[in-house]
């Protein structure tokens, strides 16, 4: 019913033929890549930092002609980058100027549930809530998006998504491209349908197995180009789509190096020719532009189509990077220890509106499992297909960063050996993850196909 072998297809399901095909990039309509602004703190000391983050309605010139009605944080579309430092006390005043409830979820953040922004922490229209937490995790690229029950998918689709960078001593000391907007650039990758009036209409684009699109946007830019002046580029890739898996590569199969996964740096860079990210996943990659087959250009491809055109204008003096440097100190996993841990089965089942986890569908008033603070468990995440076939489910847990122990009984690949908060699980696969419950409260775990999550492919665990 479906083919598992070819990971280029954006998703496997019996409806595979209905997949929107990404449009061929037309070279006529290039725009400079939008770079999200860095958010200015309202107050900062070494120990603390304060930010204001506000949802708003806006209008954005995404295509030629009519502007697109969009949603954004502190702007018309998407959001700024919020930088926090490990150890800092962070205070964020969140404000909602939409005419609907929203919530501010910090995806990948390790915090007690009062700052998690789950469906329980709604911010009503024209009101604000202030959260605070201690930045208690290593340098990483996190992101934030709304999470109100029933409205997550539509609000993200209309433009609500932003980035949070955690920095620490290690990231300060590593020799990596780190000049924001120059050689260190986030790429929020999303697919959208635009109607004939250039509007993103969630209701019309909606599909129960996940709302996709035929037009690729990076940071809200269609057909973006970027003038590259340094030899090495660092891209922080974020799959911010509702439901689409993206395969990243470079023109001519030029290799690149993955240096970080969802929750921080890998121990060392791992060379890749191709990288798949499912919705919610992040990766940081380094590109050595001298490897380009073309002297003056190099394209980043998504699903074999041009996604970002790099115009190479190298500054010969730009810094050289030691790609073999040690990036992190993630401990090896001791198999004997993990064998003794309690196990929890997570069965991901179904398609379209018939989805569930362990046979249960989401209920705001139901705690599906209870865990002890500071305990550890092995979760066996199974993607159970049925006669109709199956599809990839990206499995995400709030408030934790976990480790992958195995994928179908085999050691995970190097780029899945670091910290993860979202993991792609193929049909019929079993992925074992090691989860530590270090934060208190009620946390969601769910499929990050946002429409599946809305249909109840989500549960709640309480850490006490
Ligand atoms: Cu990215 Cu529960 O979310
Ligand atoms: Cu999350
Ligand atoms: Cu799913």
From TrEMBL:
It holds the Pfam family Cu-oxidase_2. GO terms for molecular function: copper ion binding; oxidoreductase activity. Residues 56-170, 185-291, 346-463 form the Plastocyanin-like domain. Gene3D superfamilies: Cupredoxins - blue copper proteins (2.60.40.420). Keywords: Membrane, Metal-binding, Oxidoreductase, Transmembrane, Transmembrane helix. Belongs to the multicopper oxidase family. This is Copper oxidase. It comes from Vagococcus carniphilus.
């Amino acid at each position: 019913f479906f083919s598992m072998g070819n990971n280029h297809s954006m998703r496997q399901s019996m409806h595979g033929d209905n997949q929107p095909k990404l449009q061929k990039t037309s070279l006529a309509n290039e725009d400079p890549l939008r770079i999200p602004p860095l958010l200015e703190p309202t107050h900062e000391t070494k120990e603390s930092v304060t930010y204001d983050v506000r949802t708003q309605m806006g209008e954005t010139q995404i295509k030629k002609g009519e502007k697109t009605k969009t949603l954004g944080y502190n702007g018309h579309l998407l959001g700024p980058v919020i930088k926090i430092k490990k150890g800092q006390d962070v205070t964020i005043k969140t404000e909602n100027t939409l005419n609907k409830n929203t919530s501010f979820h910090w995806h990948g953040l390790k915090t007690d549930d009062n700052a998690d922004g789950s469906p329980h922490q709604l911010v009503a229209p024209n009101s604000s809530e202030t959260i605070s937490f201690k930045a208690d995790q290593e340098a990483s690229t996190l992101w934030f998006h709304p999470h109100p029950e029933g409205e997550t998918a539509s609000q993200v689709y209309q433009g609500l998504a932003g980035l949070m960078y955690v920095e620490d001593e290690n990231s300060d000391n590593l020799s990596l491209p780190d000049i924001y907007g120059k050689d260190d650039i986030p790429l929020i990758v999303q697919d959208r349908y635009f109607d004939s009036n250039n509007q993103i209409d969630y209701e019309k684009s909606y599909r129960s197995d996940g709302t996709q699109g035929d037009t690729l946007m990076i940071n809200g830019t269609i057909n973006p180009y970027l003038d590259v002046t340094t030899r090495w580029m660092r891209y922080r890739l974020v799959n911010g789509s509702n439901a689409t898996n993206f395969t990243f590569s470079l023109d001519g199969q030029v290799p690149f190096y993955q240096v970080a996964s969802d929750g921080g740096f890998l121990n060392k860079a791992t060379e890749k020719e191709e990288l798949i990210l499912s919705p919610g996943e992040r990766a940081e990659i380094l590109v050595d532009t001298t490897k380009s087959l073309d002297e003056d250009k190099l394209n980043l491809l998504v699903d074999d189509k041009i996604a970002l055109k790099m115009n190479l204008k190298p500054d010969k003096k730009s810094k050289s990077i030691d790609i073999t440097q040690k990036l992190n100190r993630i401990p090896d996993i001791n198999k004997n220890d993990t064998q003794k841990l309690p196990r929890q089965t997570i069965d991901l089942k179904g398609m379209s509106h018939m989805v569930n986890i362990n046979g249960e569908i989401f209920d705001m008033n139901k705690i599906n499992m209870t865990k002890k603070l500071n305990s550890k468990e092995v979760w066996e995440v199974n993607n159970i297909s049925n006669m109709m076939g199956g599809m990839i489910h990206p499995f995400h847990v709030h408030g934790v960063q976990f480790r992958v122990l195995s994928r179908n009984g085999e050691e995970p690949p190097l780029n899945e050996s670091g910290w993860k908060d979202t993991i792609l699980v193929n049909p019929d696969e079993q992925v074992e993850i090691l989860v530590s419950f270090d934060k208190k409260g009620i946390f969601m775990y769910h499929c990050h196909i946002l429409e599946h999550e809305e249909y109840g492919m989500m549960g709640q665990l309480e850490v006490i």
